[in-house]
């Protein structure tokens, strides 16, 4: 493994990107080095320097034994949620999770029973379905549909399917379509869940990465009644490049739901967390607002660049600027390739790796997800490779 990084002192969003090869990076080290990876959903930018400085200071104390999350952990979360989303929460509502995926699993176990129906909204992050099935639940899908340049919820279909469901897994901002649901949409969805006695687990891990003209609204902030049936899952992992530290949290206003959630987590004894995850979260949330603003601007500009480049140079591919996330949903169906041919073409001819759209549900056939949370030069090279390869066919 590399012993040091040459990027500790460079401007975060300059022409540089961290060289992540030979760092046990899932994104870079599991593929051929001549392939450009735009798949795994983490960003390539250097971490915020204040976080690195805090890590370095703690590293100098040469003991990394058992630690605990102090009051500052909970106050950092509480203050930031109110500052960014105008949602006043209590510290007692906050529960640590070793990753948002783990939080989804604990929520499924605590809010539903074996054999019950869990609703998802594909094309959507495939871990939701996998976790539900792996824990003996049945999955029913409420597919989103394209309305112009955005994907929207099919509320008529949702209302029918909620009648037999026990739990809805919401993804907001939505991965992979990039939707940031409006307050009105969330209020309607929450009201339907209330009317049908359906709990909500809301994956809001991408809530920090939102285009300037949009605003993220936690569904539990819409009303007290909706909050009482909702578990909200958040993390600094995506927005501050801390996913490898497995530090996330759940916000659970209803005390009985929180007790059930805690009971499932306690069965597995995985609530210890780690020293650097706590330091990273507190530093990001206390000092990271300006860094995040700059990051969002860079991601927004990347989204515009990719959209304009594709529209001008590769019009057979259809895409649009996402409202949130650093992910873009690309429609390759006009190339005349079946899905297996498309996968092979991207890897073997274009030499780029995108996330397989079919993993997000059958609605993703012919689609691929592109991670734009990287340096512009990398995106330019990848798109040029894609253009040349498509021209050849």
Topology:
Elements: E1 36-38, H1 49-59, H2 71-85, E2 94-97, H3 100-111, E3 117-120, H4 127-134, E4 138-141, E5 145-147, E6 150-152, H5 155-162, E7 167-171, H6 183-195, E8 199-203, H7 224-227, E9 230-234, H8 237-240, E10 248-251, H9 255-268, H10 275-287, H11 289-313, E11 327-331, H12 339-350, E12 352-356, E13 367-371, H13 376-392
Parallel strand pairs: 1-12, 3-4, 3-7, 7-8, 8-9
Antiparallel strand pairs: 2-10, 5-6, 9-10, 11-13, 12-13
Helix pairs in contact: 1-10, 2-10, 3-4, 3-9, 5-6, 11-13, 12-13
Low-pLDDT sequence parts: 1-11
- Strand count: 13
Strand order of the largest sheet: 2-10-9-8-7-3-4
Q: What proportion strand?
A: 5-15%
Terminal CA distance: 40 Å
Write a concise synopsis of the structure shown.
This protein is an alpha/beta fold. The chain has helices spanning 49-59, 71-85, 100-111, 127-134, 155-162, 183-195, 224-227, 237-240, 255-268, 275-287, 289-313, 339-350, 376-392; strands at residues 36-38, 94-97, 117-120, 138-141, 145-147, 150-152, 167-171, 199-203, 230-234, 248-251, 327-331, 352-356, 367-371. The strands form three sheets. The protein has a seven-stranded mixed beta sheet, with helices on both faces.
